[in-house]
Design goal:
The longest helix has 24 residues. Helix 3 crosses helix 15. Helices cover 43% and strands 7% of the residues. It contains 16 helices and eight strands. A hairpin with a 2-residue loop joins strand 6 and strand 7. It is mainly alpha-helical.
Length: 430
């Protein structure tokens, strides 16, 4: 798998010696981003834009009631049972679902963006709905796995239009075992790691495109290789489930580990999560998918009350940064946080591709990380947004960008600039 080779062959050293450990540890992504921003010297952070965005985002979070638990309201997300119960089969199912989604959460942009020709997955518009729609972008991989999977789903969220057989002993706390759609256990690491039980042709079938799409899912061969890699490691070392991985993480840190320590464990364990690069002889940490894996685990299992401890992250997720992809940088520029030079603007307008690790590509990702860190700091200084974090800001900005794209949201009360196209880099990192 050539796309992974440069990271597989490099020794992956821990950062704790230089950045500390525990709740006060410095996330190495932050100094990496600051170094890239200064060294490449291509993009500027607009401090007026930071101030305005901090005020706007803070107001919107309050107005929209946007919290970590907003994650649970997305109609295609698989949600765990409440209250948290490690023995409930729905807990394992949700964790395995989140892990596979995060493993495959990369490179959904299309040269057909904005048209029906782009890759999409036709499935229900929500769990339990009979309305069929075409899902694109990130939602395409979610819909593909939801469509094919055999998993645990909340009884209250399902409209039973036909009879589903299920083991009676699993009918507890309003949960039933449903073989939805095609009944393929695609989120089970023991299944998708096996080329015998889950041949490439079956994964091709899982990701089959909607009839009107004129392209397939990007980087399908790389996605399959990643599924084999992470599934095999999970089965060999952690009992074949992400829940086993989480339990090992908790044991290692005496049930007092941080989200950043989980990210480190993920990148130490799974080569395909090592979103790391080199610039002027320095290793650059970005860790988009490893951080979003921790963040989505945090959000999915966020307790209903802020007074209740999180089952996995007693210290919260304040150490994590935003997840440097191609969609959030686009909205950050639109909100005037990022200032691009004319040459970079022209490159984006003409859809010039950037290689993974190219100075321009690293600069866009690094500037986004630094900008969101400054917005979070400004919001905390203002004291209006409660326990704000770069993670929650990223979640909100991504939802805002997708809402604008779909015509379902609008930005008012703040100056914006022209919405440029996303930057185009085809890689497994984001």
């Amino acid at each position: 798998m050539t796309i992974l080779s440069r990271n597989l062959d490099v020794e992956h050293r821990t950062f704790e010696t230089h950045h500390g450990s525990g709740p006060d540890a410095i996330n190495p992504v932050v100094p990496s981003a600051e170094f890239v921003l200064k060294t490449v010297d291509l993009i500027q952070i607009n401090e007026d834009g930071v101030t305005a965005a901090a005020r706007y985002i803070g107001d919107r979070l309050v107005k929209d009631g946007y919290t970590p638990r907003t994650w649970l309201t997305h109609p295609l997300h698989l949600c765990p049972p409440e209250p948290y119960d490690p023995a409930h089969p729905g807990t394992r199912a949700t964790l395995d679902w989140i892990f596979l989604i995060s493993s495959l959460n990369f490179s959904f942009w299309s040269r057909f963006e904005g048209t029906e020709d782009r890759f999409g997955i036709e499935w229900r518009d929500a769990w339990g709905s009979e309305l069929r729609v075409v899902h694109t972008g990130y939602w395409s991989v979610v819909a593909a796995l939801d469509r094919g999977t055999c998993t645990y789903v909340s009884y209250a969220a399902i409209v039973l239009t036909k009879s589903y057989p299920f083991p009676s002993h699993l009918l507890n706390d309003y949960y039933v075992y449903l073989a939805l759609e095609e009944g393929i256990p695609i989120t089970d690491p023991a299944f998708y790691s096996s080329e015998t039980r889950c041949p490439d042709s079956l994964i091709d079938h899982i990701f089959r495109a909607a009839p009107q799409s004129k392209e397939g899912v990007p980087l399908l061969r790389e996605r399959i290789a990643i599924m084999r890699e992470v599934g095999s490691i999970m089965c060999t070392r952690f009992g074949g489930t992400f829940q086993g991985f989480i339990e090992e993480f908790q044991r290692r840190h005496n049930y007092n580990g941080t989200a950043l320590q989980l990210v480190q464990m993920v990148t130490d364990t799974f080569p395909s999560f090592r979103d790391e690069h080199w610039l002027d002889g320095r290793r650059i940490f970005i860790w988009k998918r490893a951080q979003i894996l921790a963040a989505e685990t945090w959000a999915a299992f966020s307790p209903p009350s802020e007074e209740e401890p999180h089952p996995f992250f007693p210290h919260g997720i304040a150490q994590l940064t935003m997840f440097a992809d191609y969609r959030v940088p686009q909205i950050l520029h639109h909100l005037r946080l990022l200032t691009y030079p004319p040459a970079l603007t022209r490159a984006l307008e003409t859809h010039e591709p950037f290689a993974s690790g190219a100075p321009e590509e690293l600069a866009i990702r690094a500037a986004s990380i630094v900008a969101v860190e400054r917005v979070a700091a400004a919001m905390r200084a203002d004291g209006r947004a409660g326990a704000v974090s770069s993670v929650l800001i990223d979640f909100f900005l991504w939802d805002l960008a997708k809402g604008l794209e779909a015509g379902e949201d609008r930005i008012e009360g703040i100056k914006t600039q022209e919405m440029l196209p996303i930057h185009r880099t085809r890689s497994i990192w984001y």
